[in-house]
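lol so apparently i was supposed to do this last week
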Amino acid sequence: MPATQRMPGDYLVQFGEQLKVVCRDIAHVDLRDRNLYLIWSLYLADESGCIHGLQYRSLDLVAQEYLTSIGAWEGRGPAILLNDESLAKVVSRSTPPAWDDEQRRNRFEDLCTAIALHELAHVADDGFSRGPVPPPRIVAQHKECVMNCISAEASAEDLDDAARKCEWICHSDRWVRASLHIHHRAVKYGHWPRVFFTPHAMANNAQYGLSDILAYDGAIGDEPSRRIDDSLTDILASEPPAAFTELFKSDEARRSALITSQISANVAA
Ligand SMILES: [Zn+2]
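anyway here it is w/ zinc ion bound
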């Protein structure tokens, strides 16, 4: 699988259906009566950049024309986009040359699963329900925003200060908490990729200026196992364990201090 080669479309559609089953198993209460879409960047853009995945409140509407064209549109619902191109490149770069296509495809599926679950945690943070359809002018703006994200060439390491601050804010305490619940359920239900033993593949907290995800795993205690049958929405609406809150507060203080010092440095420059 050369670095520039994309996975075949029919394979991606089939694998996307499997990923939807995984998401539905994990968010079984939240998604019980909802549509869910898994969209590959292949179908929205000829070329894509560095981003691995995204979710956006109106991503379903942005992709509605494509979903309708394949007979998959069933009305509004959360949508997750995976960038098949950048994920295939990661696999090509990070696997030994001696690996055969099947081994690389297994690694691709593991990576996609981890990224889809990362995005599912963003859906949980953002809320599963989708409101009324915004006016076409607004949907067009959202489409432009999504297409810009898909084509962005800046990797996480290359982000400027403003983009990094935005990335930090997107990965909030609610997202961390949802990630821990989702990871716990993925392991429990046999959906977590075998190659990734820890939740780092879906929650690379260092990139977001947060303590390691395993520190949060210790702070949240037995909540993920105790509340495995609850909706993620109800869990996020309830008070988190005190140790979890304390850890996030100290991370927040550190992130704010870093942002303030960066702003001061920029002003001085
Ligand atoms: Zn994220």
